[in-house]
Every structure is written in C-alpha cells, then in structure tokens.
Amino acid sequence: MNAAPADQIRLLDVQGLDVRLSQLAHKRRTLPEHAELDTLTADHTQLRDLLVASQTEESDTAREQTKAEQDVDQVRQRAARDQKRLDSGAVTSPKDLENLQHEIASLARRQSDLEDVVLEVMERREAAQERATELTGRVESLQSKISDATARRDAAVEEIDNEIATVTKERAVIAGTIPADLLKLYDKLREQQGGVGAARLYQRRCDGCRQELAITELNEVRSAPADTVVRCENCRRILVRTPESGL
C-alpha cells in the first residue's frame, strides 16, 4: 500500500486521538464515584432492610400492646362487676360469697399478670421505636451521601462526555483527510492490536511494540520509497517514518 508521507503522519494524529478516547472511556468507567456509590447503595439497602424490620416489629408490638390492654380492661370490668355484687349485699349465701370473693381475688391476680405483660410489651415497643428512629436517621444520612456522590459522578461524566465529543469531532476531521484504504487498514490493525494500529518509528525503535528494528529490517525501511506504507515485522502495526526515525 502507498500513501503520501503527510497522510501517514496524520495517521499518527488520529492514533493519538484514539488513545485519548480510550483513556477517556477508561476514566469514565473507573470514576471513584462509581465504587463509592456501589458501597453507599449496598449500605443503604442493608439499613433499609433493618429499618423495615424495626418498623414491622414496632407495628406488631403495637397490636400486641392493644390486645394486652384490652385483656386487662376486660378483667378489670369483670372484677368491678363482681365487687359491685359483693358490695350490694345481694349475695347472701356463704358459699356464693366465698366463691365471689375467690373470683375477685383470682381476677386481681390475673389483672396484675396482664398488666405486667402490658409493661413488657410497651418496653419492647419503645425499644423498637428507638431503633427505627435511629435507623431512619442513618438511612436519611446515607441517602444524602448517595445524592451528593451521584451529583459528583454525573458532573464528572458530563465533563468527560463533552471532551469525548470534542475529541471525536477532531478525529473525524483529520480522518476525513486520510485515504480510505489507509484508514481502513489502520482501523483493522487498531482493533487487532489493543487499540494501536499505527506507531512512530523513533530512533530505530517501533513505538508500538517497543522493539528495536533489526539491521536488515532497517535497511528495507531505508530503501522503501517515502510513500510506501511499511509495517513493523514484530507487531505488524503501520510504521510511520519521521525525521526522528534514526534512518
């Protein structure tokens, strides 16, 4: 393949822009905010699960407390009725009086036991409420950090994307001045060779693979016409000659 030396030099310009685009793409993928958001989001999800569990526990104990208080109230009402009967003098049979007094005493013990249950449930409910309040604060704090990290990430991505757009336009302008067959070969080699399709021959060394050319290869390059597109024998990339090639 033949191409004017100026076209080959411009190929190095395209290569430089392609390297920059690769660097920008890598920078975009590896922004520290990505890892930060992954960590924050995982922590947020875990805390949200704990918060839901605490809220569920608080709700369950609230219902349990209501039921226990209703049980106490029922026993209290029944005891009040029995005490009223006892105080009214309507019960005159000694056996009935004994039974009624025994029932009142039993209800008093039952009421005391149920009130202890209410207190125990109230303590558990209060603990669940405190835990939910604490977790709510932590979730809100994490959400604030997530919002901040998201804003920083979006700003960084926007800045990178703007630079990518600028470099892409510049590449398109320069690539448009390079013969299509040369550019096609370059793009093919760039895909095969890890993003580098053309390399400068500098001080008898290929800038692509960093290998110094053998004397026979150097002689071939020296003797090749200026418009000949030469290739590195080692990496097969397009080898662009410049005044600094050491030929």
Automatic annotation (TrEMBL):
<dbReference type="InterPro" id="IPR052376">
    <property type="entry name" value="Oxidative_Scav/Glycosyltrans"/>
</dbReference>
<keyword id="KW-0175">Coiled coil</keyword>
<dbReference type="InterPro" id="IPR003743">
    <property type="entry name" value="Zf-RING_7"/>
</dbReference>
<feature type="coiled-coil region">
    <location>
        <begin position="97"/>
        <end position="159"/>
    </location>
</feature>
<feature type="region of interest" description="Disordered">
    <location>
        <begin position="55"/>
        <end position="94"/>
    </location>
</feature>
<feature type="compositionally biased region" description="Basic and acidic residues">
    <location>
        <begin position="60"/>
        <end position="87"/>
    </location>
</feature>
<feature type="domain" description="CT398-like coiled coil hairpin">
    <location>
        <begin position="14"/>
        <end position="194"/>
    </location>
</feature>
<dbReference type="InterPro" id="IPR056003">
    <property type="entry name" value="CT398_CC_hairpin"/>
</dbReference>
<dbReference type="Pfam" id="PF24481">
    <property type="entry name" value="CT398_CC"/>
</dbReference>
<feature type="domain" description="C4-type zinc ribbon">
    <location>
        <begin position="205"/>
        <end position="239"/>
    </location>
</feature>
<protein>
    <submittedName>
        <fullName>Putative zinc ribbon domain protein</fullName>
    </submittedName>
</protein>
<dbReference type="Pfam" id="PF02591">
    <property type="entry name" value="Zn_ribbon_9"/>
</dbReference>
